[in-house]
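Deliverable D4.2, example record:
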Amino acid sequence: MPQLSSFPIVVGAIAAVVVIGILILLALFRRPKPVTNEEVLPTLDLDSLKEGEIPSVPRLEIYHIPVQLAAIVIAPAGRNHELPDLHEMVALIDHLAPGFGEVFTQHEPKVVFWPAQLSTEGFIRSFFRHVPLPGSKGRGTPWCSLAGRIETTEETLLVGLVCRAANANSLSQIFIDRASKWLDVVRIRDGE
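Output generated by the structure prediction step:
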């Protein structure tokens, strides 16, 4: 049977171990969260985009509404993929719709590069979150945005477009769920 004089020492030692354990647990739970790709993606401010007359040659149309290509966000698809050089990229984005490379050159949009994204759907959702449109996701304003993937036999790029029409419209955010849908939505016309 332990002596009563050693009892407070044992209780004190147990209390010290419990307090140290609690402090360690608190330190573990207060550790900062690791940074994810989502947190480092740049947000695009529409006020920073160039405004002006909508170029008529070539004329870019979204669902038959003439628009100016104000910004483009480009990311490689998949882990360990990198963006091609600018010359190759212009050729690749021409796969979005025939003549889109010329629109890109003529409209001189702001270009934003994002790190590689693991999924098309994840990219699209991130793009719409990081490129907020005014009003109700752009409805009733001149602004619209589109996001999806472009595929060639060798490359897949994830692309988000920010466009501005001359007048308010109902275009909003357009989810391009398959590469061929760009051709349903985007038209390039050589003139009026």
